[in-house]
Amino acid sequence: MNKLSLLQHPKQRKLLFSAGLSWMFDAMDVGMISFVVAALAKEWGLGPERIGYLTSINSVGMAVGAAAAGILADRFGRKSVLLWTLLIFSIASGLSAFAAGYAVLCVLRFVAGVGLGGELPVASTLVSESMPAKDRGRAVVLLESFWAAGWIASALIAYFIIPDYGWRIAFAIGAVPALYALYLRRAIEDSPRFTEVKKKTTVPLRSRIASVWSAEHRRSTLMLWILWFTVVFSYYGMFLWLPTVMVLKGFSLVRSFEYVLIMTLAQLPGYFTAAYFIEKFGRKFVLVIYLLLTAISAAWFGNATTEGMLMAAGICLSFFNLGAWGGMYAYTPELYPTAIRSTGTGMAASFGRIGGIIAPSLVGVLVGKSIGIGSIFLLFFATIIIGALAVLFLGKETKGTELT
């Protein structure tokens, strides 16, 4: 099979690229906050706990947005909800540039999070439903690879703009996706599968939520909620703190941005290898192997004693963690039928975001209590192992199966 066959159909290629750019803007905004808080800590004199709360409030919004958008997308369609979530987060991000104080910034980051959290599961559901079975997993992982492009963009903005022009300019750039939403109105359509199901019947909200936890889907839902929680908890706990952790390890702010940029570049090959393996060996293989290697990399990074070890561990952490994210986004929509697919995906993502709420604040508290970075990253090691075991023992393989 031609590995790039999905890119040879113009309509599929256009959808993947269009949804991918919206995904990239999401990542740019999330990545930006990790760099901005490192600058804000100095400018506003924020302690570790307040930094943790600021990053966590974004995840509170993402939890609300993921559940709401997932439910709405099964009712009103993937396209319209995708456009609204894109507008919400880009406008809130742009307004963040004018925040006069900590409380106002927290409110705006919550609203931005609602849009961010809603856009991701809806976009992955749309792409998953629009691709043939043989290419579906690879297409969604490639969609996820745009996340790396967004983080790289945020790292470049942080490195070249924040030190000279300040963090407000970085947030102002986050308003650009509002213009992109105008293009998306004409560029994408709802999936034929959703349109067909929508014509036949509309499942009531209560029935959709109940179906996610019905006997047929209960095992998959339990597995997904554990997987999403452990992956999001570890990701936001580790990556939103990376620039600050580098500063805590003795590097200057600019130097820490430079190192995180290099680590971020490792995300791309992580995605691309996962995109290859996911159709060759299956979803469970990619998730279990990449999660186990993420756990090992986390323990290594937290206990690195030299500059070279820190860089190598950080590169491995980015490579395997983001490859696992790609596998998770590809796997999740495949476990539900079309009528409840977006609801099930959104609810799993929403529960996962609770991990993203807890982790940054927890790290802030632990750092504030002078707990070592090595011990903190061992916590992430254990969490990721739990996620891998959940997939191994509770997950079912969906490689090559047709969506219902």
Distance from first to last alpha carbon: 24 Å
What is the number of E strands? 0
Shape: globular
Helical stretch tally:
18
> What is the averaged pLDDT score?
86
Task: Give the biggest beta sheet.
Answer: none
Taken as a percent bin, the fraction of beta residues is under 5%
Radius of gyration: 20 Å
Structural class based on helices, strands and sheet pairing: mainly alpha
What percentage of residues falls in helices of 4 or more residues?
A: over 70%
Helices and strands, in order, run as HHHHHHHHHHHHHHHHHH
pLDDT < 50 runs, ≥5 residues: none
How would you portray this structure in words?
The protein is an all-alpha fold and 404 residues long. The radius of gyration is 20 Å and the shape is globular. The model has no long low-confidence stretch (mean pLDDT 86).
